[in-house]
Request: fold
Amino acid sequence: MIKRMKQWARRIKQDVVAIWLAARDPRTPWMAKVLALLVAAYAVSPIDLIPDFIPVLGYLDDLIIVPLGILLVVRLIPADLMAEFRRSAADMSSRPVSRAAAAVFIAIWVLAAALVLLVLFRKAAFA
Reply:
């Protein structure tokens, strides 16, 4: 059972990379691109909707949101394209990790949080 779970986790990780590639490919339908970008960004982002330090619930969002999002994106992408993206993702798995990409995602989430706080403070000031 543990072996099967590890294989499932590897497939999910590889599919995240595959949908990231799909989101940047002009042959991918636009709806799949938008959803692929959102799912990939959420999957690789260090910031979660429910922080991981909260017992049980912290990992529950990762176990539900990411796989369901990946499943939906995969269904929106034509099968032959998805197979091509999965092969490319498998080739990329042997490459080094980019810390610059991690910094970009952190910056995006920090900016998004700052914008939300700004809007909330402005609403509070006018209320």
Remarks:
- The two ends are 55 Å apart (CA to CA).
- The helical segments are 2-23, 30-44, 57-76, 79-92, 99-126.
- The longest helix spans residues 99-126.
